[in-house]
Amino acid sequence: MTLEACTNLVRSQDPDRFGAALVANPQDRPALITLYALNLEIARAPFQSGEPLLAEMRLQWWVDRLAEMGTGRPPPLHDVLTPLWEAWGSAAGDLTPLAEARRRDCFREPFATPEEVAEYVADTSGRLMARAVARLGADAQGQAVAADQGLGAGLVAWLRALPQLQPIGLGLAGGDPADAARLARMARDAFQRAAGSRGLLPKRAAAALYSGPGVGRLLSGILENKVNILEEEVVITPFQRRASLARLALTGRWWR
Fold first, then answer.
1. What is each CA distance from 81 to 10, 15, 175, in whole angstroms?
2. pTM of the model
């Protein structure tokens, strides 16, 4: 049970966060990689069963293990939890809310309003980014900035996935393009708030604040009615991904 399993998981399933983690100081990478591997596991746990009760039981297993780790109890040998324990120790207990926030996914229900989406994203992506920068030296004010950046990044990721979510009933209940535009404005505003307070974050935290490639293009396309994100997939090319990560590595600029 080594860090390699987490590294391979994040590399294959979350290439943007994986690439950003490589920009981090070497001593910070294990904490980021194990955090992102955990995030992948708890995100998919509710979808490993089509029965809501069974799905919730699968998610609860993660909630229980993280809570136990918070008391100082090592987890059972596991490809993700063992390296997580090695990197985080009992501080892994602070990650329990990340798993709790995925509970609504067990019930396969669409979101009734953009505000519901934003609340869910704040509790998942926003909280994830706040925990990451806390580990990289950010204080409470810096973590609040990261929560805004994570909200923006999470809304973008959710909008990008919407063409796949909508047909299976996991997107916006009304299927109204105006709701998607509202989410795009929320993302833009969250990014602007984070950029305006970027001085509250240490440079060391830049790798944990990456929002991904093609963000501006996607938001502009939605807000200018050039992209119907409920139906139209906006593809990121390998070149765009490499160029965006190279910019982060060379400049340390994470804000938009």
1. 14, 20, 38
2. 0.96
For residues 178 and 181, give the distance between their C-alpha atoms in angstroms, rounded to a whole number. 5
Range of the domain at 57: 1-108
Q: Which of 74, 67, 72, 57 lies closest to 98 in space, CA to CA?
A: 67
Residues composing the chain: 256
Residues 6+ apart with CB under 8 A from 74: 85
pLDDT tens digit sequence for 5-58: 999 999 999 999 999 999 999 999 999 999 999 999 999 999 999 899 999 999
Q: Give ∠ CA 209-158-239 in degrees, rounded to 5.
A: 65
Residues 6+ away with beta carbon under 8 Å from 176: none
Q: Are residues 155 and 171 in the same domain?
A: yes
Indicate if 65 and 165 belong to the same structural domain: no
Please list the alpha-helical segments (H only) found in 106-231.
Answer: 114-121, 127-135, 140-165, 177-196, 215-223
Q: How far apart are CA 216 and CA 242, in angstroms?
A: 16
Report angle CA 153, 155, 158 to the nearest 5 degrees: 110
Among 43, 74, 108, give the residue marking a domain's end: 108
The DSSP bridge partners found for residue 172 are 111
Task: Quote the CA–CA distance of 96 and 47 in Å, as a whole number.
Answer: 19
Residue 1 has pLDDT above 80, yes or no: no
